[in-house]
Design brief:
- There is one protein chain.
- Helices cover about 75% and strands about 0% of the residues.
- By secondary structure, it is mostly helical.
- The chain is elongated.
- Keywords: Coiled coil.
- Pfam families: GapR_DNA-bd (PF10073).
- InterPro entries: GapR-like (IPR018753), GapR-like_DNA-bd (IPR046367).
């Protein structure tokens, strides 16, 4: 085996080990998040709504406004909003 092969093997092993460590951290963080949602649920909060808010906060405000406008339009067209009637 050449020195170049050894270096490539060592670099590959280092990348794999870094990924494995990060995967372990990711699993730990996912468990922590699950625990926080559990605490929120135990304190009477609607976890489904909280998850939606967390997702919405990740979206650019302008993009979110556009999405909400389209959603509002569609809901109105389908008669899903108070005072609107479904169009055939």
């Amino acid at each position: 085996m050449t020195a170049q092969d050894t270096v490539a093997r060592d670099r590959l092993r280092a990348f794999i080990e870094r990924i494995e460590r990060l995967e372990e951290e990711k699993a730990s963080i996912a468990d922590d998040i699950k625990e926080v949602y559990g605490e929120a649920r135990a304190n009477g909060f609607d976890v489904k709504a909280m998850r939606k808010i967390v997702a919405l906060r990740k979206v650019d405000p302008v993009e979110r406004m556009e999405m909400e406008a389209v959603l509002d339009l569609y809901m109105n067209e389908l008669g899903m909003k108070p005072g609107s009637e479904e169009r055939q």
